[in-house]
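Practice problem: Efflux transporter, RND family, MFP subunit
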Amino acid sequence: MSKKVIKIAVIGVLIIAVIFTGYFWKRKNSSMRKTAAQQVSSAQVTKGDLEVVLKGSGTLLPMEQETINLKVDGTVKKVYFEEGDVVKKGDLLFELEDEDLSISLEKSQLSLIQQQINLQEINEQKQKAVIYAPEDGVVKSVDVKVGDSVNANSVLATIQDQNKCQVKVPFISSQIKNIKQGQKAEVMFLDPIYTVEGEVTKTDTVGTLTSTGSIYYYVTVTMNSNYYVEEKDTAVQVHVITDSGKELGIEQALIEPEEAVDVKSEISSKVKEIYAEEGEVVKKGQKLFSLDLEDINRDIEKQQLTLQQAELDLKSKISQLENLLVYSPIDGTIIEQNVREGDLIRPSTSSSSSSDPAAVIVNYAKMQVVLPVDELDINNVEIGMPVKITAEAVPDQVFEGQVEKIAEQGQSQNNVSTFDVTITTDKVDELKAGMTVDVEMVVASKQDVLILPITAIQYRNNKSYVMLASNGGETSSSDMVEVETGISNDEYVEIVSGVKQGDRVLLSNSTSSSSNSTRFGNQPAGQMAPMGPMPSGGSGMDNRR
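Answer key — structure tokens:
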């Protein structure tokens, strides 16, 4: 065979190889494209009902539990209930006695009374800082000036009643025993002779020895008119009218002016104001002096503090005495009791943390479970919201509960804040304290709304989009549609606007790795995240449809 023939044959083989290679490559590429198209998944916009449900689990505990600690020293005199007994709120549980406390209480009561009396006396002194005229008359003398210090019983001024006069008449012992203050008397003037009425205002109880050796008892008789004439001796004779008859004075006596009355201070202080001058006519009750109150006011403040201290001391003693009687604070069952009659109680000398409580009372009438709820979900939870409770220990039964309390302040852990939500349920025989229970509450629901799987939503620049599916299963950027979303759970989301019922959209698992990076962002804020750990063995709440 010639070289020319061989060369032509080789060229033919190469041409055939190229043709077959191109054919098989085209078929393979077509098959791969067909397979990729077959892997595309989508969902149709449909109408349905949507619920957002919070779920969690925790330990069921009594709603009320009280630990009874004895607060005062004493001896247990009486124990009225035993462990396991059912008690009512206000039932007397224990009675203690303490003789020292009773004596201390009595002393505190007496001290309080004494401090009250002291304060009253100081207030009375304050009222005595203003001094008034004791009777009508003329100011004969003013014996102090402003700023002078005076003591109690110091004479500040004298007043004389010029509308009266008096006479001092001597009597002997046999007469004086019949004469009494307040008796009437006849005063007879001798030149000229006339008689006026007087009144016994004073009698001597101690006789006066005269120069002749006689003992006289002087009686002062006061007349309501002034018969005294200055620089003139006016003699009179006096009869005192007694129950035994008239008693005649042993000797005549001279008319005298009415005795001046001393105006005295009843307290120690300084003269602040003087309101009358010598020679001034004053009326009974007229203000004459005022004394400084600075020291008295200071004494009042100090005494008020002393009184308050005495009141607090008595209140403390009464509280301690009341604590000798220990009552049940709640209805319930005594599940623990650690005192007996005759026990000596000394909480004041021992740490409460190192000793057992006197009793523990539990009320099983209402049970509770406390669950932490994520900050993104807490505003969807309301007081009174119904709750479904189940327990593995009680299969096929659902118990009703409700939200009783929502914590005002959250607790932060790992940059996530949770709020404790207290859920309560009435006691039923099947549910025991300490059981682990599962809790569900519907926090949002809508009926007959457009819904899509949550994986259909893509996020760009804080906006929500879906990718419409074409008839051939291929997509382009022009198929991206913005939508408005509503409530959502872990599986489905409400579509408020942007697409209509029957539209088909692509799901996240239908896209290539390159499109995933642009079509799926962070979880939307409306989506409820799983909760953090729950105290006392509880777990947080997450949301499910």
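Discussion: DSSP finds five helices and 37 strands in the chain. Students who identified this feature from the tokens alone can consider the problem solved.
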